[in-house]
Design goal:
single chain, alpha+beta, 3 strands, 14% strand
Length: 133
């Protein structure tokens, strides 16, 4: 299976300040990266676009824009690589269409086993009643 490549012109990255603890460095340096990828304007195939927009992922807005925030690394470059990798993983997860499910019927033997187990269970429960003298 070939990996879908997304050219850098199709997404935009902005440097933002990272959240959370980090001391003086977190207040001075914009090391976190916010990556924005517009699915509708991208060069992906229509099937991949549809499956990507159908995902119930909080990173995809109602307008069809994927927003990924990378802030785990200390440097901006490492966060850029992390954001791009996460975007590729998200697109790759919907790259292959799911297999079509065909309806099947239970076999005669499985129907018999099911009915037999039901009758045995019914007999067990019938013996639990009150005893008449």
């Amino acid at each position: 299976m070939s990996r879908i490549e997304i050219p850098p012109t199709e997404y935009e990255m902005t440097a933002i300040r990272a959240q959370g603890a980090g001391g003086q460095n977190v207040n001075k340096v914009s090391s976190a990266i916010q990556l924005r990828f517009d699915v509708h304007a991208s060069g992906l195939s229509p099937g991949v676009k549809a499956r990507l927009l159908a995902l119930s992922d909080s990173r995809i807005t109602d307008d069809g824009v994927v927003v990924i925030k990378a802030q785990t690394q200390r440097t901006q470059e490492a966060n850029k690589r992390d954001a791009i990798e996460r975007l590729h993983e998200l697109v790759q997860s919907v790259a292959v269409a799911p297999r079509t499910r065909y309806a099947t019927r239970p076999t005669l033997a499985s129907k018999k086993r099911r009915l037999e187990s039901k009758s045995i269970r019914g007999q067990t429960k019938a013996l639990r009643g009150k005893v008449d003298d």
